[in-house]
Amino acid sequence: MTQSNGYGVVGHVGYNASTTPDHNAADEEQPLLNGVVGQRHNAKSFTTRIRKAAKDEVKRESAELMLILCYIITGLLDSSSISIWGSFVSMQTGNTVYIGLGLSAPSESTRWIKSVTSLGCFCIGSVFFSHFHRYFGPKRRGTLIASFLIQAVLCVVAASMVTLGPGGYGKDEIAWDVLLPISIVAFQACGQAVTSRALGYSAFTSVVLTSIYCDLFSDAQLFQLDNPDRNRRLGAPVMLLVGAVLGGVFARSSIGIAAALWAATVLKLVIVLIWAVWPSEKREEESDD
C-alpha cells in the first residue's frame, strides 16, 4: 500500500535510497583499492626477487678478479700495521716468524705479543667465516654480501677506535687500543681467504703471495702473449704492491693507520656492491629449458 505526501508517492516500506549510492561508492573506491593491491603486489614481488637473488649462487667465471682486488686491501692493512704497530694483520707467515724470534728472546721486544694476538684472532676468524659460508651456502650471493659487510663493519669499529684513541704508541708498546684493533682487523682479514676457498680459487687467498710467485715463474708459457692464468697471477702481487705503497703513505701521514682502515672499509663496501650485481649461475630448471 502506498501513501501520499506533499512531494509525491512513497512506497509502504519506504524508498530504498541506499541502492544507487552504494553502487556509486563502490565504483569510486575500486580504483583506490586496485592501487593499494597493486602496490602490495609490487612490494611482494620485489621482496621475492631480492630473496631469490640472495639465494642464487654467483657465477664462478672471472670471480677471481674480486680476490685479486682484495690484495689491495691486504697491502693497505699490512704495510700500515707493520709500520705503526709492528705486527701483520693478514699475512700470518710474518707473524709466525716474529713469534719465533720473540720466544727465542722474550725480554728484547714485545712485538711478538702483538703477533700472537693477530695470529690467534686470525685463526678464530677462520673458524667463524668457514662455518658461516658452510651454513648459508658458500657461493650464495647473500652469503658473500653478508661476509664482506661483516668485514666492513669490523674495519669501521677498528678505524673508529684508532681515530678516537690517544695513539702515539711505539712499535714495542702494548696498549688496549692497539691490541684490540689488531684483534678485530686480523679476525676479519681471514674472511677474504675463506672466500677464495668458497669460490674454488684456493691459489688466490688474498693474504699470501709465495705460492703465486712459484706458480707464476714455473709456468711453461710464462712469456706467451695469450696467457690468462699468468695475467691473473701477475695481478695479485701488483695489487698488493699498490696497496702496500698506499698503506705506507697513510702510515706516514698525520692520520696514520686510521686512514688505511677507512680506505679498506670503502673497498670492502665496493666489493659488496659488486657482489650485488654479479651474474648468477644458471639454475638447473633454467638450463633444462
From TrEMBL:
Transmembrane annotation, as ranges: 65-88, 112-132, 144-162, 234-251, 258-278
Family matches, as InterPro entries: DUF1275 (IPR010699)
The name this protein goes by in its record: DUF1275 domain protein
Keyword Transmembrane helix in record: yes
Domain of life: Eukaryota
UniProt keyword annotations, A-Z: Membrane, Transmembrane, Transmembrane helix
